[in-house]
Specification:
There is one protein chain. The protein has a single domain, classed as Up-down Bundle (Four Helix Bundle (Hemerythrin (Met), subunit A)). By secondary structure, it is mainly α. The protein contains five helices and no strands.
Length: 141
């Protein structure tokens, strides 16, 4: 295991688990079955984030860059699994906390992720052309 995989995969995994455990066990909100559903969504979102980051490897960047067209693993089905998984993770946390105002925060998060995905798509299409267009045709979001 190299230092890069520790930073890219294991530290975010531990931080995500800690966050979910803390909110589930000690966070605000009623202790009911919505909290369990929120935990399930949070875990699913965290799993998606970690799998996507692992699959991207060194191709991950904060700003859109065309290092490599990654089409394997989770990227063979979803073009932006980090964005989708992040929204699922946030929805799980919001469901556990059960503060209705947080649901109004989810809409701007979704809009931001769509804008980021479109920006990224322009960079990838400019760099990879037809290969990216074919990839986009056979995948979701």
């Amino acid at each position: 295991m190299d230092r890069g995989s520790i930073v890219r995969v294991w530290l975010p995994l531990l931080a995500g688990f800690w966050c979910l455990e803390y909110i589930f066990g000690s966070g605000p909100g009623p202790r009911d079955w919505f909290r369990w559903i929120g935990l399930g969504l949070g875990l699913a979102g965290l799993a998606g984030l970690i799998v996507a980051r692992y699959t991207l490897g060194r191709s991950f960047s904060i700003s859109p860059q065309a290092r490599e067209l990654v089409t394997r693993g989770i990227y063979s089905r979803i073009r932006n699994p980090i964005y989708v998984s992040g929204v699922i993770f946030a929805a799980g946390i919001f469901l556990m906390v059960r503060n209705p105002a947080l649901w109004f925060v989810l809409l701007p998060i979704i809009i931001l992720q769509v804008v980021r995905a479109r920006r990224e798509a322009r960079v990838l299409e400019a760099a990879f052309g037809d290969a990216y267009r074919e990839y986009r045709r056979r995948t979701w979001f």
